[in-house]
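Structure ticket #2291
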Amino acid sequence: MLSRSGGFVKQQLYHAVVLQQVCFRASIRGPGCHVSVQRRPGRYRSEGRDEDSMRAVVQRVQRGQVSVAGQLVGEIGTGLVVLVGARHGDGTAQVMQLAHKIASLRIFEDDEGKMNLSALDVGAGILVIPQFTLYADCRRGRRPSFTQAARPDTAEPLIERFVEGLRQTGLAQVETGAFGTHMLVRIDNDGPVTIILDTDIL
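Resolution: structure written out below.
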């Protein structure tokens, strides 16, 4: 009995360690101890979704601007600076989903100081900065790998669709950086407020 019990405990510990390694989180909900597992993006296929995703870092700002070769190419006042990256396999569905989510995020303060208003509600502008480094893989060594990011000929039209999707929501102003160039970006983060979005888990 001791041998069997010890083997059972070891097996349970093994499964617990494996679960920790492959999961970002486990949520336990309701009767029956139902466990839903969210796995690492890019290594497992999510049910009902394409294998790949689109990722954005959204920052609420008092001012944002982007320059290329010393020339100002985009600028906003109060609004959102959105760093956005695409991964292999992204399509129109992911692009539009992300655009509508960002336009409607309630991260601006109302008269009571609560985050209750969206960029659409307050007439805020959005500055979009293409950034393939959002898909950096740093699991091995000290030099990031960017193989998960979409190739430029795939990523550029996706970013353009994303910008168009934002404009279609009725936002007051949508500015962009210059794809494939070295950009100098100014971000006066207000709060600070920074939100990370991934269509794989929206």
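Closing remark: Residues 2-39 form one domain.
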